[in-house]
């Protein structure tokens, strides 16, 4: 099933096919921030959540669903998902959009794919794994850049020199500094601080502790990402450490495992990274950002809180966006 999803939904070809949806949702994100701009500031998390929800849902279900209802209430979730599946079945019966209306197979969504294969259960898992992780990564990256204005300035200057009128996905690969910002954010604040539990297949001794065979093993990637044996000034936010470095998050460098490693590694890396890059590039390109109440960067509270295997920001990020006139530096 995992293999199926990787090939059918999260492969490079599929991720590329969802580009028009992502671009549309990115424009809505910019418009929503512009609308809610005020002197008191904007709470970024709900707006980012709506964006990530829409992008993941449009890929998975063909349309946006209500995020809060999905996450908070299992019964509502079931009935919403039933509705989505029934919708798709009805469309198939009337033979209108079993495949995409334009006849292009690549615009099928996950529900179409799973209905083709008669495997409906996986839909909800995919949704939950994809939305919260991306939202939190974007929020943490913004928070760290607000606390470290020189990083914000470098990322902004880069975005504004790569793009002229608008952000396009084709140009995202040129944002090297932003890529380093995202890596550094994932090192310090991995959205899943513990990987999926593993079971040891043989006896081992780790750090002086005997681990019997068949023990449940939890890998704490948060602690590994801050271990001074592997990272200089481990608690410092310094995207520069990833510039000209070969360390990446694809599971081969065990000091940096935000997406896990091995057979259970996150299959949504490509999907997740493009969503995070696209959102951040838009936030940096279209807005200047200020802290409310004349707060100084060093006073921004980035205390982490751990619950439900997620690292959350204790204080929700509140920022003032100042829309930029395109063409100005
Ligand atoms: C910044 C974004 C994301 C991060 C940091 C992240 C991180 C992770 C991690 C750490 C795991 C566990 C891996 C392990 O134990 O080795 C995981 C599993 C998973 N992720 Fe992601 N993820 C992200 C985005 C996504 C997206 C966008 C999707 C799908 C749309 C997705 C789908 C999944 C699924 C289905 C699993 C379970 C895999 C399994 O059970 O074998 N993730 N993710």
Task: Describe the fold and architecture.
- This is Cytochrome P450.
- Belongs to the cytochrome P450 family.
- InterPro entries: CYP450_71D, Cyt_P450, Cyt_P450_CS, Cyt_P450_E_grp-I, Cyt_P450_sf.
- Its main location: membrane.
- One of its GO terms (molecular function) is monooxygenase activity.
- The chain has one domain: Cytochrome p450 (Orthogonal Bundle).
- Helix content is 48%, strand content 9%.
- Helix 8 (122-147) packs across helix 10 and helix 9 packs antiparallel against helix 10 (176-188).
- The model is unreliable at 67-74 and 97-106 (pLDDT under 50).
- The strands form 4 sheets. Strands 1-9-6 form a 3-stranded antiparallel beta sheet.
- It is built from 12 helices and 9 strands.
- With 329 residues, the chain is mainly alpha-helical.
- It has helices at residues 2-8, 12-17, 19-36, 44-60, 67-72, 74-93, 110-117, 122-147, 149-162, 176-188, 221-225, 269-286, and strands at 42-43, 198-199, 204-206, 209-211, 216-217, 287-290, 304-307, 310-313, 318-323.
- Protoporphyrin IX containing FE binds at residues 2, 56, 125-126, 129-130, 133-134, 137, 191-192, 195-196, 258-261, 264-268, 271-272, 276.
- Protoporphyrin IX containing FE (HEM) binds at residues 2, 56, 125-126, 129-130, 133-134, 137, 191-192, 195-196, 258-261, 264-268, 271-272, 276.
Please sum up the structure shown.
It is built from twelve helices and nine strands. The protein has helices at residues 2-8, 12-17, 19-36, 44-60, 67-72, 74-93, 110-117, 122-147, 149-162, 176-188, 221-225, 269-286; strands at 42-43, 198-199, 204-206, 209-211, 216-217, 287-290, 304-307, 310-313, 318-323.
């Amino acid at each position: 099933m995992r293999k199926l999803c990787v090939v059918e939904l999260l492969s490079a070809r599929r991720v590329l096919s969802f580009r028009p949806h992502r671009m549309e949702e990115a424009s809505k994100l910019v418009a929503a921030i512009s609308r809610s701009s005020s002197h008191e500031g904007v709470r970024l998390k709900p707006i980012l959540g709506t964006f990530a929800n829409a992008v993941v849902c449009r890929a998975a279900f063909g349309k946006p669903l209500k995020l809060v209802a999905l996450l908070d209430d299992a019964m509502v979730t079931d009935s919403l998902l039933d509705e989505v599946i029934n919708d798709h079945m009805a469309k198939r019966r009337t033979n209108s959009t079993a495949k995409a209306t334009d006849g292009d197979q690549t615009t099928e969504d996950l529900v179409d794919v799973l209905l083709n294969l008669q495997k409906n259960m996986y839909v909800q898992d995919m949704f939950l794994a994809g939305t919260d992780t991306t939202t939190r990564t974007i929020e943490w990256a913004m928070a760290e850049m607000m606390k470290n204005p020189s990083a914000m300035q470098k990322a902004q200057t880069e975005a504004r020199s790569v793009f002229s009128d608008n952000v396009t996905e084709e140009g995202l690969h040129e944002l090297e500094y932003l890529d380093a910002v995202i890596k550094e954010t994932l090192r310090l604040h991995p959205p899943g601080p513990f990987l999926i539990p593993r079971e040891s297949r043989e006896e081992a001794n780790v750090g002086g502790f005997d681990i019997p065979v068949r023990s449940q093993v939890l890998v704490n990637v948060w602690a590994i990402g801050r271990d001074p044996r592997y990272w200089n000034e481990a608690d410092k936010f310094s995207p520069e450490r990833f510039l000209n470095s070969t360390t990446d998050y694809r599971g081969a460098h065990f000091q940096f495992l935000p997406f896990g490693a091995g057979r259970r590694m996150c299959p949504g890396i490509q999907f997740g990274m493009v969503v995070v890059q696209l959102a951040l590039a838009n936030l940096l390109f279209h807005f200047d950002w200020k802290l409310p109440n004349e707060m100084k960067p060093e006073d921004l509270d980035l205390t982490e809180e751990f619950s439900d295997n997620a690292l959350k920001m204790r204080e929700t990020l509140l920022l003032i966006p100042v829309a930029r006139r395109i063409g100005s530096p």
